[in-house]
Amino acid sequence: MAGALLEAWLLARGIGGVQVSSAGLLAPGFPAEPEACAAFPGLAGHRSRQLSTEDVDWADLVIGMTREHVREAVVRAPATFPKTFTLKEIVRRGQAMPRSPSEAIPQWMRRVAADRVPPDLLGDHPDDDVADPTGLGAAAWARTIEELDRLTASLAGMLWDPEGRMTLYS
């Protein structure tokens, strides 16, 4: 859901050519939960894809829904910690350190990640983790979709400068 929402927000801002890919910790090939498909029809036909070291190495930015996801990504590729965040974390840090129109995204990400240390992501925490609505009913799915929509809209806004340019590389 987060990948589809982020891609939609980027496209809404006219940002094309950005590849958004989704992978997780589950074994590959599983369909989305029926409740998830009912709440977010865009998941119909979706099949799980397991995160790989290549995925983490390849990506310019790795976003997890929970601290556990970030830890697993960093275990696969330890050098990628500076570009691996939970969605809530990068939005919170990005709001505290806005990107200037002339600042390239990698430069901004280095600034946003500057004071992070891996122990900050030990355990679970509601400040960083998007709650998993699986098995909690339609209202929980609606709340999660609303939260993901708000967070991905914020992130897309951080990646898109006010003059309508997206500067990926410095």
Describe the fold and architecture.
This protein has 170 residues and is mainly alpha-helical. Helices cover 44% and strands 4% of the residues. It has one domain: Rossmann fold (3-Layer(aba) Sandwich), CATH 3.40.50. It is built from 7 helices and 2 strands; from the N terminus they run αααβαβααα. A two-stranded parallel ribbon has the order 1-2. α1 packs across α7 and α5 packs across α7.
Poorly predicted parts: 162-170
Structural class: mainly alpha
Range of helix content: 40-55%
Listing every helix as H and every strand as E from the N terminus to the C terminus, the arrangement reads HHHEHEHHH
Summarize the structure.
Helix content is 44%, strand content 4%.
Question: Notable features of this structure?
Answer:
7 helices, 170 residues, 4% strand, 44% helix, two-stranded parallel sheet, mainly alpha
Topology (SSEs and partners):
Elements: H1 2-12, H2 34-39, H3 53-58, E1 62-64, H4 67-76, E2 84-86, H5 87-96, H6 105-113, H7 138-159
Parallel strand pairs: 1-2
Helix pairs in contact: 1-7, 5-7
